[in-house]
Every structure is written in C-alpha cells, then in structure tokens.
Amino acid sequence: MQIIACVKRVPTTDAAVSVTPDGKGLVTDGLPYMISFYDEIALEQAVQTKEALGGEVTVLSLGPASGSKEIRECLAKGGDKAVVLTDDEWMTRDARATAKALVAEIEAQGADVVFMGKVATDRDNASVGPMVATYLGWACVTDVVALELGEGGGTAKVETEAGLETLEFSLPAVITTGKGLNEPRYAGLKGIMAAKKKPLEEKTPELEANQAMVASLAPPPPRKEGRLVSDVNELIDALRNEAQVL
Description:
- By secondary structure, the chain is of the alpha/beta class.
- The protein has a single domain (about 1-215), classed as HUPs (Rossmann fold), CATH 3.40.50.
- It is built from 6 helices and 11 strands.
- A 9-stranded mixed beta sheet has the order 9-8-7-10-6-1-4-5-11, with helices on both faces. Strands 2-3 form a two-stranded antiparallel ribbon.
- Helix 2 (about 70-75) crosses helix 5 and helix 3 (about 95-110) packs across helix 4 (about 130-135).
- The longest helix is centred in the N-terminal third of the chain and has 17 residues, at about 35-55.
- The N and C termini lie far apart (about 55 Å).
- The mean pLDDT is about 90.
C-alpha cells in the first residue's frame, strides 16, 4: 500500500510573531518551527497503517528547503522517504494553490491513501484536505477520531457539530485527522540515526497563482489591565454590569 502523510512546517505555538511593514504577512526571520500538531497525528496514523497493512509511507510537504530538519524528524518517526515541494512563499500560498501542488505529487506517487491534519495550526483554514480529495476525485473523510482501515476501504468515526458519526468509505481516500485518533510517537535514537540515510527529495513544483490574498493583517489589541475585587458580590456585579457576561 502506498501511503502519503502530508505535513506542514509552521511556527511553534509559543513563537513571538510580528507583522511585516506592509501589513500583509509575518516576519519569518528567526522564527522557531515545528510540524503542525494535527499533521503529527496524520503521520502517526500513516505509520500505524503501514505497520498493520504493509507498504511504504512517503512524507510530503510544501515548504522551504530549509525545513529539512522538521521533515527528517518525520522520517525518524517511521516515514520511509520524503518529498519536499520547495516553495519559499509557502506561508502565503492559498489553499487552492497548495492543494494543486500536492495533488500533482500524490498522483505521481501512485498513492492509495493520504493522511493529513484536519487543519494547519498557522492558517486554520481546514480546506486543503477536502480540496485535494476533490481534485483527485477520491473519497474524503474529515475530522477522523477513530479509524479501521483495510485493503479496499475502511470505517471511520468523525466529529461533527451534532456529535460522532460512523462512516464507511472505499479507497483511494483522503483522511484528515483529529485530536484523539492516536498518540504521536517520539523519535528514538535508532529512528533518528536511520532517518539520516532515508531519501529526502526536493522538487520544484508547478505553482498556480493565489486566488485568495491577505488584504491586511494586524495583531490583536492589547488586553485591558485586570483588577482585583474584594469579594464575590463585587465580582458578580462586575461580570454582570461591566463585562455583561451574566
């Protein structure tokens, strides 16, 4: 089985970010990076699928060549090889352009199933997965929190606004992973050493122009200074009459 785990390099959740002078992006120089949280879950599910059904896991990412450190970490956790579609403007690439680039490589790899996080922790769009499935013409199962997968298809529990739903689907499919599906493993010393010898290929993708552009970006306004209250009655009064949350 040919399995692909799509991952994205994003700034760490505790990174101190600042807006560029033109107000349309973030200053990226010196930022610490990580693999997006939900993509870690996708990678783990891809590796578990390989362990259960056999096959090969390809880690696929659109991002800068300088992101090889994070991709090597994915290989240390069980990926067999990696392909980086090099794009220095990956943080400003819209969902459609990103999906188109990923689809071309997924087709070239002859994948049977694609795992990716339900949402990236930087842009929070939750749209690349469904777009990839649409362009491929594959089944798409989103927000998966439990999964049973076989050679021809599987059964998944997905989170919806109404609660959990159980779905049956056939392969090939794009599966976006939610919190609770698994517990991502740590890279052991053996995996780290093995990752150094695993193939990591950099390719220059054909990128389409963005259809969605950031018009303006601004940090949130500073929070008002808090104050201490003397008793519960004063707290209730403040919540009711000042904050108006009661």
